[in-house]
Specification:
With 745 residues, the chain is mainly alpha-helical. Helix content is 55%, strand content 5%. It is built from 28 helices and nine strands. The protein starts with 18 loop residues before the first helix and ends with a helix.
């Protein structure tokens, strides 16, 4: 088992505006990755702030090295000798004279082999699990001779041999965490690329590089490998990361969870060509909501602040819960009391040394409470972080829970939502990759034969995450991964199980094929997109699901439009026009004005292209251009009436396209309009180009192209209507443009 998705993560050098919140969630993810006890994992933790690195590494050591208590098991017989605790995590300082971490690990295991437990006369017993190892001190190689630095990189390049060497079989069962600074990360990427590509997790902590002068005298709090002894490893809890910035308050943002993608198009680049609007998709988190308390209790500031005195619950979690209580002043007392009550119950369970199963259930209860708030629209950064940390704590205490796949799925979706929740969009790639990691881990624990519904849901979510990841890098590879995930979901999400979820997944698959068709094999992938959309359409009754039915028809029309650019242009454009027209029966101005405007825009683009086909007759061309004008005008009229509502197409591009349609209609030789009608069309063309020009002042290339359209339209005024027509055109141009226009006439 591995966290395979993280093999493609890249380092983001952008400074994080909220280092405290960022480092907290990275720490929790790293802690979870190590606490799951997976074998053969290769993790890299990136941290330039050595003070922070020392705190986090020591905290991981003190938290994970030993289970609760000094003894892992009780003797089964009176005469059996109890074995001292054996660590789950070992911290090794890199040997700077011979920087071979594999040899150091094997030497440690030779000195301290896993003890045998459960041995008796009739039972040979079993060895305890081999621990994970974290390697620190790599940054100190910078002060060593170049030959030593190169030797370290050579050891990393040869690491594959150690993995495959039978003599190193114990190492195969372990996981390794390397702590490196960014300069050493770049060196590894360039000089030990094979090692870099075998990594299974990358954890990036935010912080300024520690000045060299301050490094020399700072105690690292970590033992070197030569002084490590069983029972003497540092076990004290280090200071929390409270010296970093406080969590900022964030404004609640409504996050919607449709499973269907709504693909929109708009002409851009000043010619009628479609622009894709990437759809948003996610499955609703589906584990059971927390039980409700029957009594309503009041919450005071003193009660909330007293949570910070709890000793067994992480400081990050209690601080975040306090933040949610303090910022939810408009909530009723019940909403504010519930998280406090659960936190107190968890504290009591710790004091009672309750079982891991009980603690895991209690933390999951807290996560469920905050997940429910998020589903109801309270998707603040604090609420998301509480849910994430609570679920991660739940797993760390009970990683055998039958609900583990659902928790991992929810963690994936919560990280996906972190990307969708302002102000976190700058770190979107990292959040999405974390979501992919949890979805993949959930899938490794689910049997599609025994739990087909859960398996299909997670695969659908994984496809969505890969689609969002394609916005950041490797679009071809990530859209292909999305297709694979959606296709796998459809193997187990049948129409008989849930027809609407089946249709939603088919729509998602169609959209993934559409996107992939923008990069390679367009005919193949666009035809597959159309097939998937049509498979979805079967299960949407236009009377019962008019909006979804119209949305799918719009998507089919867009795929046909794209296909017309490669084969059978007349036939495919006509098909696009037909399905756009069908979509507009259900995407009406009264029901969904923004969606109606988008489809009208798409329809205008299709009419423009069919009017300009060589096989279109001279009698048909003016009719198609007039239909194009009608559609664009309807789209713009609706768009301007929405007053700030987000649109999925470029308004200024549509103004330009409408201007081009009016212009082309006038200069078309088959157009029979008199001077008055010609003047009206040219005035409309000029008006729309000027509106576009006014909106494109900060886009130099688009501005210059639009200015060219203005000049062509003014010349058409002169050609069609003489000097009076030119004067009419110039009277409509803003005065500041006249000095630039006159020399070009």
């Amino acid at each position: 088992m591995c966290f395979g998705s993280l093999a493609t993560m890249s380092v983001n050098d952008t400074a994080h505006t909220d280092n405290f919140a960022w480092n907290r969630q990275v720490y929790q993810r790293l802690k979870l990755a190590l606490s799951l006890g997976l074998r053969r994992q290769l993790f890299l933790a990136i941290c330039d702030d050595l003070h922070l690195r020392n705190q986090v590494a020591a905290r991981l050591h003190s938290t994970l090295a030993y289970p609760v208590g000094q003894v892992l098991y009780q003797p089964s017989e009176a005469g059996e000798i109890s074995t001292p605790a054996y660590p789950r995590l070992v911290t090794l300082r890199l040997n700077l004279s011979d920087p071979n971490p594999i040899v150091q690990i094997n030497q440690w295991l030779a000195n301290y082999p896993p003890p045998i437990v459960g041995a008796s006369k009739d039972n040979p017993g079993r060895p305890l699990p081999i621990p994970a190892f974290q390697i620190v001190g790599v940054e100190l190689l910078t002060k060593q001779p170049v030959a030593v630095q190169r030797l370290f990189l050579q050891y990393l390049r040869l690491s594959e041999q150690y993995f495959s060497n039978p003599e190193s079989s114990r190492f195969l069962e372990s996981s390794i965490l390397f702590w490196v600074s960014r300069p050493w990360l770049y060196a590894i990427q360039q000089s030990a690329s094979q090692f870099w590509h075998t990594r299974t997790g990358l954890f990036i902590f935010a912080g300024e590089p520690t000045p060299t002068a301050q490094n020399r005298g700072y105690p690292e709090r970590l033992s070197g490998s030569r002084s490590l002894e069983l029972g003497n490893l540092e076990r004290s809890l280090v200071d929390e990361l409270a010296n970093l910035a406080e969590v900022r308050e964030t404004t609640a943002t409504d996050i919607q969870f449709p499973e269907n993608d709504d693909l929109q198009k708009t002409p851009v680049n000043l010619e009628p060509t479609p622009q894709e609007h990437t759809p948003s998709t996610a499955a609703i988190l589906q584990t059971a909501p927390p039980s409700q308390e029957s009594s309503v209790r009041s919450v005071t500031g003193t009660n909330a602040l007293s949570l910070s005195s709890l000793s067994h619950i992480s400081k990050e979690l209690t601080e975040l819960v306090i933040a949610t209580i303090n910022t939810n002043i408009t909530q009723d007392a019940e909403d504010n009391w519930q998280p406090q009550q659960i936190i107190w119950e968890i504290e009591q369970l710790h004091l009672q040394q309750a079982s891991g199963e009980a603690l895991g259930a209690a933390y999951q209860h807290l996560g469920n409470l905050y997940r429910l708030r998020i589903e109801q629209g309270q998707s603040t950064l604090e609420n998301l972080m509480v849910a994430i940390i609570a679920y991660q704590e739940s797993i760390s205490y009970d990683d055998t829970s039958p609900q583990l796949p659902d928790i991992l799925n929810d963690l994936g979706t919560l990280y996906w939502m972190m990307y969708r929740t302002p102000p976190n969009t700058d770190e979107g790639q990292t959040y999405i990759e974390q979501g992919v990691e949890f979805y993949q881990l959930a899938l490794k624990l689910i049997s599609p034969q025994t739990h087909p519904e859960t398996y299909a849901r997670v695969q659908n979510n994984l496809g969505t995450a890969y689609g969002d990841l394609a916005r950041f890098y490797q679009p071809t590879e990530n859209w292909q991964q999305a297709i694979t995930a959606y296709s796998e979901a459809l193997r187990y999400r049948t129409a008989e199980m849930d027809s609407l979820k089946y249709a939603a997944c088919q729509n998602n698959l169609g959209t993934a094929y559409w996107h992939l068709g923008q990069f390679n094999q367009p005919v193949l992938h666009l035809n597959k997109a159309i097939a998937a959309y049509k498979a979805a359409l079967v299960y949407y009754n236009p009377q019962q699901e008019p909006l979804k039915y119209g949305m799918i028809q719009n998507n089919i029309g867009t795929a046909y439009w794209n296909l017309s650019q490669y084969e059978q242009p007349r036939e495919n454009l006509q098909l696009a026009i037909d399905v756009y027209t069908e979509a507009l029966k259900y995407r009406t101005p009264a029901n969904v004005p923004s969606a109606c405007a988008a489809t009208q825009n798409n329809l205008g683009t299709a009419y423009w292209h069919i009017a300009n086909l060589s096989q279109t007759t001279k009698e048909e061309r003016p009719k198609f251009l007039q239909l194009c004008i009608n559609a664009y005008e309807e789209a713009l009229s609706l768009a301007h009436s929405l007053n700030g509502i987000s649109l999925s197409f470029d308004l200024f591009a549509t103004h330009n396209n409408l201007g081009l349609a009016h212009y082309q209609l006038v200069i078309d030789q088959s157009f029979n309009g008199d001077k008055k009608i010609r003047s009206q069309h040219l005035e409309a063309a000029l008006d729309n180009h000027l509106k576009a020009l006014n909106g494109l002042s900060k886009q130099p290339e688009a501005y210059q192209a639009t200015f060219t359209y203005v000049m062509k339209t003014i010349r058409a005024f002169h050609n069609e209507l003489g000097i009076q027509g030119q004067n009419l055109a110039l009277s409509k141009v803003p005065g500041h443009l006249i000095p630039e226009i006159l020399p070009r006439l």
